[in-house]
Design a protein that fits this description.
- The chain is an alpha/beta fold.
- It is built from four helices and seven strands, in the order E-H-E-H-E-E-E-H-E-E-H.
- The chain has a single domain (7-116), classed as Rossmann fold (3-Layer(aba) Sandwich).
- The chain has helices at 15-27, 39-48, 66-75, 106-116; strands at residues 7-11, 31-36, 53-57, 59-60, 63-64, 79-83, 99-101.
- Strand 1, helix 1 (15-27) and strand 2 (31-36) form a beta-alpha-beta unit.
- Helix 2 (39-48) packs parallel to helix 3.
């Protein structure tokens, strides 16, 4: 019997991108939680969800996702920021958070996951 897959919370406000990220993660052997499309939903899922790591869009419908990051930090859950703004660091980046630029590949996301949590590879 295989190990339980790594569970990934996906926080992305654009439905098409969220579906692409979900498919990419599932194809790579991860189990997807969410996605959360709105800030309030993302905060609730970050606070109460059962997952191992998160992919967090920096901008959710024009709102900064820093409150979601803070909940994840409080819970000790690693996360990777995803942004379409290129290499420009957002407000949450001053603390050394790891970021991937959209569009990203599963390899890029996997390397980012490894930076924040070495045990975050797909299992199962």
């Amino acid at each position: 019997m295989g190990a339980t897959p790594t569970r990934v919370l996906v926080v992305e406000d654009e439905a098409v991108l969220a579906m692409m990220i979900e498919d990419m993660l599932a194809d790579a052997g991860y189990e997807v939680v969410g996605p959360a499309h709105r800030l309030d939903d993302a905060i609730a899922m970050a606070r109460d969800g059962d997952f191992d790591i998160a992919v967090l869009d920096m901008n959710l419908g024009g709102r900064d996702s820093a409150p979601v990051a803070e909940v994840l930090r409080t819970r000790g859950i690693p996360f990777v920021y995803a942004t379409g703004y290129g290499s420009k660091a957002g407000p949450g980046m001053a603390d050394g958070s790891v970021m991937v630029s959209k569009p990203f590949t599963i390899e890029e996301l996997g390397r980012a996951f490894a930076k924040v949590s070495p045990a975050s590879g797909p299992r199962g």
